C-alpha cells in the first residue's frame, strides 16, 4: 500500500495538500446553503413554485448522503486519488449544469449531480488531511476540517445573497469553478495514489434498500401536499417504495452478519443515543436557514444580500463555540455542555416565536447568535459522547452513521417544515378570510369597496397567514430539539482519562 506522499515530499507539498483538502471541504459545504438567500432570483428565472424550493437543498444533501457511504470502498477499490479527482470533475460539471438550467427540474437534477460528487469529497478530504499530518496534529486537523465544513454552511447564504444581488444568481456557482480547478491541480501534482491491497466487499444491497426507503419517504413528504396525498398514484408508489426499502433493509440487517452498518454499532448505547440526537441536530441546523431567508425576503421585504449578511452572526457564534468547546480537556464531563447547548438552541427557537412583520433586524441576529452558540457547544460534546465508549475499530463506521443521521435529519427536516408551512398557510388564510366578504367589508368601510380593493385585502390576509405559518415552523424545530434533551441522562459517564 503506497503512502500519501513520496518519501522525498517536502513540507510545502504537505501544506499544499492540506490547504487543498480544507478548501474542498469548505467548497462542498458552502454549496449546500449558497442558494439560500438567492432563491427569489432563482425562482423568478426558473419559474420555480414555492413548494419546490426545498428540493434545492434536499436533492443535494440526499445525493451526498448516498455517495458518502460508499466513498471509502471506492477509494480502496479504485484508488483514493482517482476517486477524489473524479468527484472534483463531476462536481465542476454539476456547477456548470446549475448555471445552464432553464427549468426547475433541470436545476434540481443538476443539484443531484453536484451533491453526488460532493459526497466523497468530505470523508476523503479528512482522510487525506490526517495522513498528510503527523499523529500529534490529528486532533487539530480534525478540528480544522470540522470548522471549514461549518463555515461553509454558515457563510453560504451571505455569499449567495451578495453575488446574486450584484452579479446574478449563476455567479454563485461560477465562483466554485476556480476553486475546484485549484484543488484538482494541487492533488494532481502533490498527492500520490493509495488503494487497498485487498478490496473489501461492500454491502450494496443494504445501502440501496436503506437509500430507497429514505428517498421514498422524502419524495412522499415533498410531493404529498401538491398531489393531494394518496389521491395520487405517484404518492402510493413513493410510499410503497419507502415501506419496501425499509422492510428489506431491516430484514437484511437481522439476517446477515456484515452490512454497511455493522451490528456491533447498535450494541453501544452512547452511539445510538448520539445518532438520535445528531438527527435532531440536523433537523434544526439547515431548516432554520431554509425558513429564515425566505421569511426576511418575502415577508419582511429585505434585499437578498441583507438577508445573507444577517446569517453571519449565527455562523460566527457556531464556529466560535465549537472551537472553545473542543479545547475543553477530555477528562471534563461532556454532558453539561451537551445539555447547555441544547437548552440554548431551544431558547433561541422560542425567541423566534416572537418574530413579527413589525420587527427590525435585531431579533433575528440575537436568536441566530444564541442558536449558533448552542449548536457549536453540542457538536463536539456529541462527538465525545458517540465515540467515548465505542471500540476504536468501529469508529469509521460510527462516524459514517453519525454523519448520515445528521444529513438525513436535515433533508427530512426541510421536507417537514415545507409541508407544514403550506398546510398552515392555507389553514390560517381560511380562518382569516372567512370574514372577508363584500357585504361585511362594505358595512365597515367609509368608501366603496370594489373587487380590486378586495383582492388587495386578500393579499394582506395571505401575507399574514404566511407569517403565522413561518413562525409555527420554528415551534416544530424547537420541539425537535426539546424532545431529545432527556436522552442526555441516559448517556454513560465518560471514561477516566488514561
Features:
mainly alpha, single chain, Growth Hormone, Chain: A, 18 helices, globular, disordered N terminus, 2 domains, 498 residues
Look at the helices and sheets and give the structural class: mainly alpha
Radius of gyration, in angstroms, nearest whole number: 24 Å
The largest sheet, given as strand count, sense and whether it forms a barrel, is:
none
Residue fraction in strands: under 5%
Mean pLDDT over the residues: 81
**Total of helices:** 18
Roughly how much helix do the residues carry, as a percent range?
A: over 70%
User: What is the 3D shape?
Assistant: globular
How would you describe this structure to a colleague?
The chain is mostly helical and 498 residues long. It is built from 18 helices and no strands. The protein folds into 2 domains: 1-200, MFS general substrate transporter like domains (Growth Hormone, Chain: A), CATH 1.20.1250.20; 260-498, MFS general substrate transporter like domains (Growth Hormone, Chain: A, Up-down Bundle). The chain is globular, with a radius of gyration of 24 Å. The two termini are 32 Å apart.
Quick rundown:
The chain is mostly helical and 498 residues long. The protein has helices at 11-33, 39-46, 53-78, 80-100, 104-132, 138-167, 171-174, 176-190, 204-223, 233-255, 269-299, 304-309, 312-326, 335-352, 362-387, 395-433, 438-443, 451-482.
Layout: helices, strands, pairs:
Blueprint: H1 11-33, H2 39-46, H3 53-78, H4 80-100, H5 104-132, H6 138-167, H7 171-174, H8 176-190, H9 204-223, H10 233-255, H11 269-299, H12 304-309, H13 312-326, H14 335-352, H15 362-387, H16 395-433, H17 438-443, H18 451-482
Amino acid at each position: 500500500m503506497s503512502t500519501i506522499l513520496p518519501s522525498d515530499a517536502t513540507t510545502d507539498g504537505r501544506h499544499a495538500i492540506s490547504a487543498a483538502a480544507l478548501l474542498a471541504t469548505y467548497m462542498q459545504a458552502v454549496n449546500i446553503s449558497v442558494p439560500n438567500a438567492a432563491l427569489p432570483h432563482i425562482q423568478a428565472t426558473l419559474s420555480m413554485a414555492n413548494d419546490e424550493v426545498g428540493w434545492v437543498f434536499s436533492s443535494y444533501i440526499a445525493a451526498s448522503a448516498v455517495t458518502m457511504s460508499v466513498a471509502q470502498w471506492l477509494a480502496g477499490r479504485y484508488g483514493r486519488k482517482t476517486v477524489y479527482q473524479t468527484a472534483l470533475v463531476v462536481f465542476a460539471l454539476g456547477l456548470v449544469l446549475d448555471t445552464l438550467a432553464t427549468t426547475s427540474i433541470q436545476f434540481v437534477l443538476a443539484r443531484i449531480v453536484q451533491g453526488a460528487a460532493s459526497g466523497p469529497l468530505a470523508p476523503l478530504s479528512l482522510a487525506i488531511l490526517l495522513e498528510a499530518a503527523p499523529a500529534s496534529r490529528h486532533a487539530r486537523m480534525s478540528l480544522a476540517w470540522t470548522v471549514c465544513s461549518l463555515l461553509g454552511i454558515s457563510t453560504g447564504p451571505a455569499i449567495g445573497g451578495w453575488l446574486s444581488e450584484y452579479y446574478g444568481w449563476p455567479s454563485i456557482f461560477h465562483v466554485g469553478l476556480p476553486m475546484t480547478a485549484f484543488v484538482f491541480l494541487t492533488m494532481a501534482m502533490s498527492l500520490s495514489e493509495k488503494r487497498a491491497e485487498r478490496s473489501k466487499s461492500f454491502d450494496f444491497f443494504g445501502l440501496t434498500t436503506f437509500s430507497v426507503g429514505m428517498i421514498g419517504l422524502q419524495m412522499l413528504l415533498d410531493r404529498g401536499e401538491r398531489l393531494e396525498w394518496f389521491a395520487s398514484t405517484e404518492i402510493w408508489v413513493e410510499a410503497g417504495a419507502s415501506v419496501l426499502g425499509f422492510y428489506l433493509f431491516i430484514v437484511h440487517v437481522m439476517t446477515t452478519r456484515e452490512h454497511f452498518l455493522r451490528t456491533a454499532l447498535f450494541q453501544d448505547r452512547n452511539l445510538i443515543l448520539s445518532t438520535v440526537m445528531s438527527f435532531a441536530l440536523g433537523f434544526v441546523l439547515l431548516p432554520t436557514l431554509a425558513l429564515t431567508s425566505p421569511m426576511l425576503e418575502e415577508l419582511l421585504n429585505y434585499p437578498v444580500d441583507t438577508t445573507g449578511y444577517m446569517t453571519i452572526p449565527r455562523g460566527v457564534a457556531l464556529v466560535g463555540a465549537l472551537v472553545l468547546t473542543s479545547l475543553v480537556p477530555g477528562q471534563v464531563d461532556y454532558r453539561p455542555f451537551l445539555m447547555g447547548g441544547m437548552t440554548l438552541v431551544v431558547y433561541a427557537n422560542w425567541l423566534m416565536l416572537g418574530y413579527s412583520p413589525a420587527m427590525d433586524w435585531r431579533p433575528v441576529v440575537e436568536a441566530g447568535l444564541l442558536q449558533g452558540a448552542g449548536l457549536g457547544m453540542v457538536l463536539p460534546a456529541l462527538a465525545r459522547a458517540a465515540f467515548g465508549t465505542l471500540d476504536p475499530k468501529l469508529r469509521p463506521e460510527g462516524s459514517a452513521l453519525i454523519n448520515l443521521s445528521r444529513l438525513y435529519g436535515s433533508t427530512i427536516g426541510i421536507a417537514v417544515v415545507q409541508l407544514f408551512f403550506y398546510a398552515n398557510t392555507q389553514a390560517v388564510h381560511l380562518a382569516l378570510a372567512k370574514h372577508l366578504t363584500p357585504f361585511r367589508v362594505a358595512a365597515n368601510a367609509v368608501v366603496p369597496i370594489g373587487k380590486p380593493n378586495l383582492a388587495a385585502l386578500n393579499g394582506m390576509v395571505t401575507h399574514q397567514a404566511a407569517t403565522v405559518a413561518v413562525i409555527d415552523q420554528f415551534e416544530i424545530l424547537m420541539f425537535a430539539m426539546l424532545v431529545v434533551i432527556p436522552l442526555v441522562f441516559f448517556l454513560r459517564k465518560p471514561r477516566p482519562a488514561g
